């Protein structure tokens, strides 16, 4: 029993030991597991802390494929790799994870959640699940991945449409004005199936350019995502058919008030020109400057533009003012000039009638008509100045003298107090260095208010030809060393062509031979020494300037051979055979010591001839050629003065005239045109001032042939001009028929030619003088009798007035050659005037010959009321 008890005890001890050991072992194992779990839990917490530091995920810049996709297009995680995605941390210095941490991405498994919440194509973001793992420790979190393509950035302008309602009723520039609440700007998608929802965006509008003149605008629409202002895009639209800026002409007028009394139209013209002379002045400032003469009120927003101010129908008490109203700074921008706002729009030209001006024109016109000439004063410094070199400040009464013509006499023009004379050269073409003249504009003004002008020719200035001397010319004839001087001039055409081509001016700039006629004549030839002396007659094209020059050309081929002919033998004096024979036959009885000298002088008196001084001339005979009435034969021989060698008899032909009548007839047949000399007194006279048969001064008239060459009177002939029996006065063109008469040895012949260049009939050549008995009448009373303004037959008078010309001669010739009628009679009751046209109709002439002048009958009684008011008064 005891043994059994021992055994139990031993067994119990063993079991206890084993149990204790088991307990100890179990406790140790449990303790180790607890430690291990505690370590893993700490690592997960650290990973979770790492994820908390990540703000969002971003697609890397080099992940092109991923960036080109919408978030909604991501169906698997194949592109969601660390190579394509960056972690973006919040406020943390270390921007990367521990290299031991493995990163992977996956889509959120729930498809509905993925579609509903994860993908946002407006933002370009996708909610993805990121997994971090270290060994067996793993943690996950859903984080937004940014950087996908957005809807707004994928949209183009063509995908959208910008509507502007009521744009045809507003200007483009008014589109953004707050007051235009009725304008609705609406952006809409062209394709409604696009996923873009414009309600998710804030839309703002701005102008890129505005153009009110063309009704165009370029508008930019800025679209910004409401949830992320960094997601945005803009779209530019060019819109047409806005309302264009236009002017309502019917409502657009300015108001005018004359503020200065007793001013002339020209005074106001000058004031307007002065007020608007500075382009830098504002329009308002210019109008202010003008307000002392004329007050102008323009509609708000407009400027005034002056067009013209002219007398109405030659009545200097009434003026028509033409103007435009201008609006500036209009929007007129375009692509190239988007900020331009300098558009201008002008109204149509508008006119208004202004009255109550002072008229000095009649007085000025009468005074200006008295001015007939302008000449250089006795000590004028301009006498030594070319017209092209004259300056305006030298055109004054110290250098100039104004003349008035009374009959045939000229006298100084008397300038009255209050009047002023001004001189000007309008254009460079008026300066004529060839003739030494210029066209001078003379302006006569009264108190600086009103003026009249006329243009006269000022002659007597220095001309080009005055500066030339014999040594001014240079002639270089090619190959002259192989040409005899006598051979060169044996043919006049040849010498003209050769010398003209090779003649040069040595010391005068801008000289042009084209302005002159050149006539060459050989005056001396010397073949022994190879010399030729020429005389050149230089004549200006207008024939007012001429001068002779003599110059020698040396270097010709020399010859000792006796010449066998006279050179340039020409009958320029139109002599008959008998006249030539009588002169030459006297040479036979001359003494030997004077024969050569007298013979050569006689030849020169008869002919245009060149003689060589080395040879003695001996006359033999002169007679008419058989069977040729217009050719004479001169027989002579020559003798060399040094060698005494004598030539054989030489016979040379020369043109002659059968009779004096034939000579005169030949001369008259060359006349094509007769002109009054441009600076003569005839240019200031009417043709009707000369009566039939009256003789005209030769110096006042020039004749021309068909080539416009001046015809000079032939020596030995008498030339005269008289008014023809049928003068055919033409006052419109300033012409009259004259007889050109040639006379020699009691033989007279004549031809009738039209003489041009007289003064043309002008308004100032006659006056309208009211008859005394009508000066107490009102114009409206004269209107009752239509015959008051009809000319009485064969007179220059009506019942109401007389026409007064300078003298009875003019009046008689006017009546003999013209019919006078009155047209367009206008009765000006308030001003006490009658205005009308006087028409001069040439008898047996055409409508082209008519001359019409507007005249005013003044001095009548003025009415206080208009005719309409008088009629009302009479009825009342």
Describe the structure.
The chain has 876 residues and is an alpha+beta fold. The protein has seven domains: 39-149; 152-239, Nuclear Transport Factor 2, Chain: A (Roll); 249-354, no CATH class; 361-462; 463-559, Immunoglobulin-like, CATH 2.60.40; 661-756; 766-872, no CATH class. Helix content is 20%, strand content 35%. It contains 16 helices and 46 strands. The strands form 14 sheets. A seven-stranded mixed sheet has the order 36-39-40-41-35-37-38. Strand 22 (431-432) and strand 23 (437-446) form a beta hairpin. Helix 5 (265-275) runs antiparallel to helix 6. The longest helix is centred in the N-terminal third of the chain and has 52 residues, at 2-53. The chain is elongated. The protein starts with a helix and ends with a helix. Residues 4-38 have low confidence and may be disordered. This is Lipoprotein-associated type-17 domain-containing protein. It comes from Mycoplasmopsis pulmonis (strain UAB CTIP) (Mycoplasma pulmonis). Residues 54-150, 152-244, 368-462, 468-558, 668-760 form the Lipoprotein-associated type-17 domain.
């Amino acid at each position: 029993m005891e043994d059994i008890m021992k055994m139990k005890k031993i067994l119990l001890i063993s079991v206890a030991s084993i149990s204790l050991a088991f307990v100890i072992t179990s406790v140790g194992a449990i303790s180790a597991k607890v430690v291990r779990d505690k370590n893993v839990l700490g690592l997960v917490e650290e990973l979770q802390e790492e994820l908390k530091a990540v703000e969002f995920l971003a697609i890397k810049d080099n992940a092109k494929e991923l960036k080109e996709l919408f978030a909604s297009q991501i169906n698997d995680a194949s592109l969601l790799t660390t190579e394509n995605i960056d972690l973006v941390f919040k406020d943390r210095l270390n921007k990367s994870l521990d290299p031991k941490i493995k990163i992977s991405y996956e889509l959120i498994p729930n498809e509905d959640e993925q579609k509903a919440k994860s993908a946002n194509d407006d933002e370009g973001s996708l909610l993805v699940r990121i997994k971090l793992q270290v060994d067996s420790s793993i943690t996950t979190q859903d984080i937004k991945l940014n950087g996908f393509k957005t809807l707004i950035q994928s949209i183009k302008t063509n995908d959208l449409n910008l509507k502007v309602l009521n744009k045809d009723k507003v200007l483009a520039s008014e589109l953004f004005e707050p007051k235009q609440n009725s304008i609705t700007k609406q952006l809409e998608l062209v394709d409604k199936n696009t996923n873009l929802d414009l309600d998710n965006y804030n839309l703002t509008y701005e102008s890129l350019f505005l153009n009110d003149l063309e009704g165009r605008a370029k508008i930019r629409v800025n679209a910004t995502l409401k949830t992320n202002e960094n997601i945005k895009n803009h779209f530019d639209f060019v819109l047409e058919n806005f309302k264009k800026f236009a002017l309502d002409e019917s409502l657009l007028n300015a108001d005018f008030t004359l503020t200065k009394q007793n001013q002339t139209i020209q005074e106001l013209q000058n004031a307007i020109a002065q007020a608007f002379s500075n382009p830098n002045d504002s329009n308002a400032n210019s109008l202010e400057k003008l307000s002392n003469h004329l007050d102008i009120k323009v509609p708000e927003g407009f400027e005034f533009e002056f067009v013209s101010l002219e007398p109405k129908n030659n009545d200097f008490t009434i003026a028509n003012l033409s103007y435009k109203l201008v609006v500036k700074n209009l929007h007129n921008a375009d692509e190239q000039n988007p900020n331009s706002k300098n558009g201008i729009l002008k109204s149509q030209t508008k006119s208004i009638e202004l009255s109550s001006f002072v008229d000095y024109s009649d007085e000025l016109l009468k005074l200006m008509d008295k001015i007939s000439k302008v000449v250089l004063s006795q000590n004028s410094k301009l006498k030594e100045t070319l017209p092209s070199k004259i300056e305006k400040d030298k055109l004054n009464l110290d250098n100039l003298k104004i003349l008035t013509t009374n009959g045939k006499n000229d006298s100084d023009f008397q300038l009255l107090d209050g009047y002023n004379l001004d001189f000007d050269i309008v254009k460079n073409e008026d300066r004529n260095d060839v003739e030494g003249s210029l066209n001078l504009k003379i302006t006569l003004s009264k108190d600086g208010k009103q003026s009249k002008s006329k243009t006269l020719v000022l002659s007597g200035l220095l001309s080009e030809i005055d500066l030339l001397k014999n040594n001014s010319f240079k002639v270089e004839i090619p190959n002259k060393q192989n040409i005899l001087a006598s051979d060169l001039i044996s043919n006049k055409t040849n010498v003209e062509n050769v010398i003209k081509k090779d003649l040069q001016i040595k010391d005068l700039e801008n000289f042009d031979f084209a302005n002159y006629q050149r006539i060459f004549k050989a005056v001396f030839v010397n073949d022994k020494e190879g010399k030729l002396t020429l005389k050149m007659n230089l004549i200006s094209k207008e024939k007012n300037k001429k001068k002779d020059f003599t110059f020698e050309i040396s270097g010709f081929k020399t010859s000792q051979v006796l010449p066998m002919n006279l050179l340039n033998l020409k009958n320029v004096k139109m002599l008959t055979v008998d006249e030539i024979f009588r002169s030459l036959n006297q040479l036979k009885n001359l003494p030997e010591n004077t024969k050569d000298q007298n013979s050569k002088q006689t030849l020169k008196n008869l002919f245009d001839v060149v003689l060589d001084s080395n040879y003695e001339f001996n006359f033999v005979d002169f007679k008419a050629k058989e069977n040729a009435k217009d050719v004479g034969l001169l027989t002579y021989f020559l003798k060399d003065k040094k060698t005494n060698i004598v030539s054989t008899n030489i016979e040379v032909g020369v043109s002659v005239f059968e009779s004096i009548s034939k000579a005169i007839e030949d001369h008259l047949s060359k006349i094509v045109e007769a002109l009054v000399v441009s600076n003569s007194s005839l240019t200031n006279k009417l043709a009707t001032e000369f009566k039939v048969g009256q003789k005209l001064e030769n110096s006042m008239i020039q004749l021309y042939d068909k080539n416009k060459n001046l015809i000079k009177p032939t020596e030995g002939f008498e030339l005269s001009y008289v008014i023809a029996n049928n003068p055919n006065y033409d006052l419109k063109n300033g012409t009259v028929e004259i007889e050109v008469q040639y006379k020699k040895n009691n033989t007279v012949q004549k031809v009738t030619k039209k003489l041009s260049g007289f003064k043309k009939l002008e308004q100032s050549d006659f006056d309208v003088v009211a008859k005394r008995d009508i000066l107490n009448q009102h114009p409206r009373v004269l209107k009752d009798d239509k015959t008051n303004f009809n000319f009485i037959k064969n007179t220059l008078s009506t019942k109401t007035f007389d026409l007064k010309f300078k003298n009875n001669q003019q009046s008689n010739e006017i009546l003999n050659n013209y019919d006078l009628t009155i047209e367009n009679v206008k009765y000006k009751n308030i001003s006490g005037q009658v205005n009308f046209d006087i028409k001069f109709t040439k008898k047996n002439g055409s409508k082209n010959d008519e001359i019409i002048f507007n005249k005013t009958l003044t001095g009548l009684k003025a009415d206080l009321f208009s005719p309409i008011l008088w009629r009302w008064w009479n009825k009342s």
